[in-house]
Design a protein that fits this description.
7-stranded mixed beta sheet; alpha/beta; about 190 residues; 7 strands; Rossmann fold
């Protein structure tokens, strides 16, 4: 799938994969899965919680370009967000990406009431997944998807979120055994 991208984007993604542990990036197979999911769902309004150096955001934004969509991504750390912004520019996706800096909880709480999310991807502070879920739920459209990484690698920290989404009758959820574990929940009502 990376072969679909221009050479510059391919080179940047391959280089970012070398820093996966340092920047806590998702695996390539998880990125490819999310890219396919965005395309198949024809997701337009995509939200990412946890930008880091932009690795996952590049994949999400490339998918958004195919659907005519837009990625809004949230990062707490200045240095990481600066790196991500540069990577978005080099990969020519900056026109479909909005970056927000600050506390994810605070930024999610301040979203306009009429802000609708088609697909949310969460890869940030694992102990806050439950709070992100509560805040994203208000904006996630019926039929929309919330995908959360690291639910197996950080099982104890993610358990409150997993328990909440699995017991919520408004959602169907599955945990995929992709590297680190990916929870994929669809809002059904």
């Amino acid at each position: 799938m990376i072969e679909e991208f221009d050479k510059t984007t391919q080179d940047i993604l391959i280089n970012l994969e070398k820093t996966q542990k340092q920047f806590w990036n998702i695996s390539r197979v998880t990125a490819e899965f999310l890219t396919i999911l965005i395309r198949e769902e024809n997701a337009k309004n995509i939200l990412e919680v946890g930008t880091s150096n932009g690795y996952s955001g590049i994949w999400l934004a490339k998918a958004a370009q195919k659907t005519g969509g837009h990625l809004t991504t949230i990062e707490f750390w200045d240095k990481r967000l600066d790196i991500a912004k540069e990577n978005f520019k080099l990969c020519q996706v900056e026109d479909c990406v909005t970056t927000l800096k600050g506390s994810a909880c605070e930024l999610l709480e301040s979203l306009p009431e009429d802000y609708i999310i088609d697909l949310a991807f969460v890869d940030a502070n694992k102990s806050e997944y439950i709070k992100y879920f509560e805040l994203i739920d208000k904006h996630l459209k019926v039929g929309g998807i919330i995908a959360c990484d690291n639910v197996l690698s950080h099982e104890a920290k993610c358990k409150p979120f997993i328990d909440a989404i699995n017991s919520n009758s408004n959602y169907e959820n599955v945990v995929l055994s992709l590297p680190a574990g990916l929870s994929v929940g669809r809002k059904i009502k």
